[in-house]
Amino acid sequence: MSKKFTKDHEWISLEGDLARIGITDYAQEQLGDVVFVELPEAGRQVEQGNDAAVVESVKAASEVYAPVSGEIVEPNVKLEDEPALVNQDPAEGGWFFTMKVSNPDELNDLMDEAAYADYVKELG
Amino acid sequence: MTNSTSDFDGTGKVSGASSEQGLNGYARTPLYDMHLQLGAKMVPFAGYEMPVQYGLGVMGEHLHTREKAGLFDVSHMGQAQLFPEDPDSDVAPVFEALVPGGIISLKERGIRYTQLTNQDGGILDDLMVTRFGNTLWLVVNAACKNDDFAHIAQSLVGKARLSVENRALLSLQGPLAEAVLKEHLPAAADLAFMQACHADYQGEKVIISRCGYTGEDGFEISLPNDMASQFAALLMENDAVAPIGLGARDSLRLEAGLCLYGHDIDTGTTPVEADLMWSVPRRRRESLDFPGAHKVSQQLSQKPDRLRVGIQPEGRAPAREGTEIHDMENNPIGRITSGGFAPSLQAPIAMGYVSAAHAAPGTQVQLIIRGKPMLAKISSMPFVEHKYLRTKS
User: The Aminomethyltransferase C-terminal domain covers which part of the protein (chain B) (predicted)?
Assistant: First the structure.
């Protein structure tokens, strides 16, 4: 399945009932050099829009929100030693966590790739 | 994903700023157009629209400054000259009444770091003071400049006259700063750390000061607004020079253990609590003739309740401003006032205030980050060694 996007610049890609979540290239560029990532533990329940992870650059800390509700399956622990992966490969290797989606209908609230591209363009 | 903390929120607009103003109400420095051309990301800061970073990014700009030379636009800062009302007298003793630093002892073209204090010993601002003859040249923080200048002018009415100078201020910092600057301003090479001079540049007066806010050797150059862009471009023709934004300025000064006004020091902190007594000579500690001297004297004899310290978190998580500090028994003992990631150390660092009993370097403490205790220890500062050029042969 192709990716969906939130207004807060997370991406989500669904593989069966498992979803992989990361932040967009636009987001990593706005953040600058990522120096620390705090990931959710496996088994944690998150609601759509809740804080799920933290990403910190030299100058600021930002929240990463759960794009949909569900249970965290696997945090990308590679980011703990190599936070710069978020900058280098935000769309693939820099993913944050996978989760089991509890309500697939929530995905309908999100933007597709074209809508997100327009959204980012408007932000300037 | 949204920003939850940022060091660069606007801290109140400067009313009556004499600089050019954009349509958004923020003031602009003479280098504004150049920042845009260089691809800077602009943010509101102290009433100005300022570059927070350029293409290299905060990390790259920070490391570039430590390795080569970084060019900062600090034209938002306040510059003024203080003259004695009686032209045959010296203005230094008059000004000294407002600060705890040693000003009358300042040699010709010498620079001093000191603070403007209030009657309770609180810090109104910190500033650089340079002696030129019987006058003083003052450089103060952008967010405080209007209040500072009003305070100085009012306090010294009838004794001194303050001339606020609307000029550009560039800062060139790093190990290659001297080599770069002396090509255009040869007099720069004759200065030692905390010395200044006047120089002629294309028929205009510039002031070169060997000081800065990074812990590196470096210079600040005060020059007429209409020369600033051209001079900055000239410096950047040298490959050693890159433009540096406020983001790296903050991480550089934090590594150097230097205070940021409004965060690490303010009217609620005294020079004793802020560990700035190195800037107060013995003569002033004995004469006690500056605003708030009684408080400073009391804190010196009885020890203050709290002290500014360096803090090194043990993990990788940066501890930001406002983070609570606990002792190992979970009692709150203070708060972080500046914190982030140190690019030169590739580790988080912070400074803050803790109760005096916990201020010794090496003391173990806990930082409460997003509700969880993280181990840290009190550290001496600077975190990264100063590279000031103390003597000039």
Answer: 308-384
* Domain B277-379 superfamily per CATH: Aminomethyltransferase beta-barrel domains (2.40.30.110)
How many independent structural domains does chain A possess? 1
In terms of CATH, what superfamily is B20-75+167-255? Probable tRNA modification gtpase trme; domain 1 (3.30.1360.120)
Closest residue in A to B250 (Cα–Cα)? A59
DSSP B64-126: HHHHSEEEEE-TTSEEEEEEESSTTS-SHHHHHTT-SS--TTPPTTBEEEEEEE-TTS-EEEE
Of A27, A116, A110, the C-alpha closest to A63 is A27
Complex ipTM tops 0.95? no
Q: What is the pLDDT of residues A56-115, one digit of tens each?
A: 998 889 999 999 999 999 999 999 999 999 999 999 999 999 999 999 999 999 999 999
Reported as a single tens digit per residue, the pLDDT across B152-169 is 999 999 999 999 999 999
Question: B212 in contact with A at a CB cutoff of 8 Å?
Answer: no
